[in-house]
Amino acid sequence: MDARLNFFATRTGTKVIKSLMTLGKDLKDMPLPAATQELVSLRVSQINGCAVCIDMHTKEAAAAGETALRMNLVAAWREAAVFTEAERAALALAEEGTRVADGAGGVADKVWAKAAEHYDEEQLAALVTLISFMNMANRANIITRQPAGDYVAGQFH
After folding, report:
1. Is 77 a member of any domain?
2. Residue 55 is part of a domain; what is its CATH number?
3. What DSSP letter does each residue of 40-61 carry, written as one string?
4. Is the CB of residue 134 less than 8 Å from the CB of residue 53?
5. 83-106: b (≥16 Cβ within 10 Å) or e
6. Angle at CA 131, nearest 5°, toward 100 and 62?
7. Strand (E) or helix (H) holding 141
8. 22 close to 115: Cβ distance less than 8 angstroms
9. Given a cut of 70, is residue 37 above it in pLDDT?
10. CA-CA distance, 14 to 18, in Å (whole number)?
11. Domain for residue 155, yes or no?
12. Tens digit of pLDDT for each residue in 74-123?
């Protein structure tokens, strides 16, 4: 599959992609556990069907020491006993924050409250930003049909 658009072939695309890469790096440096960041990024990308982001985040998670078992079970995290309560709260927030069109009320108060039990304000800010960022990245990649499979962990750092 060929991409519909090479972002780096235009001034606009290059400028935006460079900004997004900077934001992505800034997110990695925020006070949210690396495992949580990768699991959330992976789950959002699974929901949206973004193959290039699934490729990227499974490889980044593996490079950071995440197990294949947990990565394989993130799509069914509710039934899997391998996630902490904090990770479950983050995954629930990620799902509701991604599926806003599916739930007329957006993110439920109980989902937010559960996340707030496990994460402080700084971490919640990072989590909300990460979820929003991943949804935007997924959509840009899906619209332009970016191909998956050749990502190398650390390629954008």
Report:
1. yes
2. 1.20.1290.10
3. HHHHHHHHHT-HHHHHHHHHHH
4. yes
5. beebbbbbbbbbbbbbeeeeeeee
6. 130
7. helix 121-143
8. no
9. yes
10. 6
11. no
12. 999 999 999 999 999 999 999 999 998 877 678 999 999 999 999 999 99
Model confidence over 49-82: pLDDT tens digits? 999 999 999 999 999 899 999 999 999 999 999 9
Q: How many domains does the chain have?
A: 1
The answer to whether position 33 is within a domain reads yes
User: CB of 46 within 8 A of CB of 74?
Assistant: yes
**92 three-state secondary structure:** helix
Decide if 84 contacts 74 (C-beta within 8 A): no
Determine the Cα–Cα distance for residues 80 and 74; give it in Å rounded to an integer: 8
In the numeric block, which tokens belong to residue 10?
């235009």
The tokens for 16 are 């935006």
Per the structure, the complete domain to which residue 48 belongs is given by 8-143
Q: Tokens in use for 43?
A: 């789950």
